[in-house]
Amino acid sequence: MAEQYCIVERFESIAWIRLNRPQVLNALNQKLIHQLAKILEELDEDEQIRVIVITGNEQVFAAGADIKEMTGATPVDLLVKRYLTDWLRIRQISKPLIAAVSGFALGGGCELALCCDIIIASETARFGQPEIKIGVMPGAGGTQRLTRAIGKVKAMEMILTGKLMDAHEALSYGLINRVVPVHELENEVMVLAKEIANQPPLAVRMAKQSILKALDLSLEEGLHFEQNSFCLLFATEDQQEGMKAFIEKREPKYKGR
Ligand code: CO8
């Protein structure tokens, strides 16, 4: 049987994916990323699941791409093996992704956290793009998403020096949403995940899509996208239910329709 590099646990409408290569600090080999992309797609299709959490363990989120796997690769190997293609699949996930980060989130590990929509870190978290120190550079979105998250000058410093950032610095630069004590991380993430899971799923999905468009489109195009998404939500049962429940002063019951 193939090794299980990602362990999935379900808590009602919330799924947790735990990266599982602890002996090598959750180094992201191609099989792990492939499994992760497949699991994410399956959970994205699963109507029971409304929020997906990606996490590591208390010591490490992920220490980056598997350096031993990459060492002998030629550019042609990387292309033929479609080494980075699964990352584009992760980008397409429509449900909210939360990264729960303790310990190192380095290289591809930091890039994986940046693929998520929300990042909650414990006080032990350390973020970095140390690829420069081994002769390469970020390849799974680091130069693009980190720059969008923390701005050009800080991204330059992190990527060109490979220096790590602790959780409080990451918070001050807007890389993460909040820092919590390590033993409270899972609980805090669960509370936040439940809060999102209680919202109408289609509105959540379209709001996520619209926010991500803000990073790609001009303001004019983004505003059009937002307006169309807003109007489209008036075709959903959940829009009717949400507004009716408000008027009737009761809790709404959303169906994702
Ligand atoms: N790849 C492979 N093995 C690793 C990795 C890694 N990235 N990180 C750690 N390990 C292994 C070590 O080799 C060691 O194994 P062994 O016991 O067999 O020697 C084990 O994990 C424990 O590691 P350390 O002994 O080094 O633990 P320390 O606590 O001393 O140090 C560090 C922890 C600082 C995290 C250190 O391990 C380290 O610097 N790791 C490498 C970090 C790094 O350079 N990451 C960037 C990699 S390149 C990258 O991510 C490119 C992304 C672009 C594409 C993404 C595709 C997936």
TrEMBL record:
<dbReference type="InterPro" id="IPR018376">
    <property type="entry name" value="Enoyl-CoA_hyd/isom_CS"/>
</dbReference>
<keyword id="KW-0456">Lyase</keyword>
<dbReference type="InterPro" id="IPR029045">
    <property type="entry name" value="ClpP/crotonase-like_dom_sf"/>
</dbReference>
<dbReference type="GO" id="GO:0006635">
    <property type="term" value="P:fatty acid beta-oxidation"/>
</dbReference>
<comment type="similarity">
    <text>Belongs to the enoyl-CoA hydratase/isomerase family.</text>
</comment>
<dbReference type="InterPro" id="IPR014748">
    <property type="entry name" value="Enoyl-CoA_hydra_C"/>
</dbReference>
<dbReference type="InterPro" id="IPR001753">
    <property type="entry name" value="Enoyl-CoA_hydra/iso"/>
</dbReference>
<dbReference type="Pfam" id="PF00378">
    <property type="entry name" value="ECH_1"/>
</dbReference>
<dbReference type="GO" id="GO:0004300">
    <property type="term" value="F:enoyl-CoA hydratase activity"/>
</dbReference>
<protein>
    <submittedName>
        <fullName>Enoyl-CoA hydratase</fullName>
        <ecNumber>4.2.1.17</ecNumber>
    </submittedName>
</protein>
